[in-house]
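Is nickel (II) ion placement plausible here? Inputs below.
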Amino acid sequence: MSRSSQRVTICRKISFSSGHRNYRSDLNEEQNRELYGSSYSDHGHGHNYVLEAHVEGELDAKTGMVMNLRDLDTILKNVTAPLDHHFLNYDVPYFREVVPTTENLAAYCFQEIENQLPSERFTLRRIRLFEGTDFWVDCAGSREPKDSGR
Ligand code: NI
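Reply from A.M.:
I modeled the complex. C-alpha cells:
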C-alpha cells in the first residue's frame, strides 16, 4: 500500500445559534405539551448549537492533507448560515413542515453537507450536533431526512 492511498478522517466544528419550537400541527396543545414538554413553548426558545463534521478522504502525500480546511469551512458556513440567528420553524423552509428537533436538525445538516461535498473524493462519515453540553445527536448514513409522520 502506498502512502497516498491511505484514507483518514478529519473533523471540523462550527457553531451557530437558532431559535425553534417543537410542535406538531396535527396534535392539540395538551398533546403537544405532553410530547415535547418545555420545547413546546408558545414563543420558542434558542440553542447555541455546535456542529461537527467528520469527513473521510484520501491523504494526499504531497499536501499532507485530506481536504483543505478552507473548503470544508466554506461548506459548513453555507449549511449553517441559513440557520444561524434564525427561527427554524419560520425561516428555514424545510422546518415549516418538519419538527425542528435536534435529531431532525442533525439529519438535515448531514444531508446538506453531503450534498455539497465532492462525492467522488470524500465521504461524510458522521456529523455530531450538540444542542448543549449534555445532549447531542450523531447522524451517519446517506438516507434522506424523514419528512413524514408530522
Ligand atoms: Ni430546544
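Short version: The pocket of nickel (II) ion is lined by residues 20, 39, 45, 47 (CB under 6 Å).
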